[in-house]
Specification:
disordered N terminus, 10 helices, mainly alpha, Tetracycline Repressor, domain 2
Amino acid sequence: MTYRKGFKSMPHDTFLNLSDKKKETIDHILLNTFFKKPISQVKVAEIVSEMKMSRGAFYKYFDDLEDAYTYIINQYALLIHQDIIKYIQADKNQFFDGIEKYLIWCSELDHETDYWKSLRLLTESNDLSAYKRFPLASDSPLLTQWTDILVANHIVMTDHEESVSFLFFIMELVMNSLTGYIANDWTTEELVKDYRFRVKWIMTGVTQ
């Protein structure tokens, strides 16, 4: 994955060259490690013990713990972006309905799955990691799909920059809805009700 100018390039090429299975194993370990306790309480020794590798091997993959943490946050943030788009694409002409279906699906997840843990990690992050934007080239498949969805829903964007900004705005809408769901221990029905309020404010504003 390529990251924004101004942020460290991560992970290292040695990690990117690993087999998919090995990378998935490391992703699982990183997610579960950072899910269990804040980064300030995590030690590299814990991670390398779980990975069954030397401390030196860890630093061949990442600069430091913060590097590994930011990588796993961005890894799952990208996955969530992709899944939101999949749900919207199921009915391109019902933009906000697709997002609602995604939220309902999230609310019904088994809380022991990595996906649910990634949602919790992103919503409970007490820093800005979950809101840092990774760049999207104008010809990236993700943005191409996103542009098709905007066109199908007659949502007009002035340029590439605005389209990307709107994509991240929708991501924030989803994460804010899920944060409310988790923090307030809502039912699925309460999550949907709150989400529909947000959609109404977006579509019609708060004044008549």
